[in-house]
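Our platform keeps sequence and structure together, in a single record for each protein. Nothing more is needed to write down the fold, since each code stands for a local backbone conformation. An entry from our holdings is shown next, in its original layout:
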Amino acid sequence: MLHGISLSKAQSPSTQEERDRMSRIPYASTIGSIMYAMLCTRLDISYALSMTSRYQSNPGERHWIAAKNILKYLRRTNEMFLVYGGKEELVVRGYTDASFQSDKNDSRSQSGYVFCLNGGAFVTELAVVPSIADPVELYCDNNGTIAQAKEPKSHQRSKHILRRFHLIREIVNRGDVKICRILTDENLVDPLTKPLVQRKHEAHSRSLGIRDMPDWL
């Protein structure tokens, strides 16, 4: 997703002529093909796929252009793969982030999390295992979130947080997860929650284990 580009329902067809024209475009099947690539090896297109897949019921020209840009990016980077191995320490590390009210249609926020192991990334739900030798390190760039996870404090500004979301405190107290502060520019999950400039996108993709074939042959 190009930095500075935003999609919304306002860009969907507003006339029958526009809807008829867009009905001849294979938008849904294109999104399905992109999703297959993302689920297999290309986590770097997660955010772009998330944004474009929201308009499958009534896609507009701007949405179609955005989907084609994803295909162009995949063609340009067709020798990049999700690679595991190398000199990375065999330790699970997690990264989490959210972009506040990034959805222009209903002001919803976009959140994401990535867990890395042996130099590569996988996205999954966090399951609590009864016996863990060392805590899983979960990196976050929001000081308020880290404080809420570690300290059972209650004040006016945090009353909106539902009780069920405080489960993370129990997990932290048991020593299963260690919440660590990370700088925003170093948070590997950024490509899942917001559009980035090319330099940052490429740097984070490499950190997630998505590398060019000649780099590891």
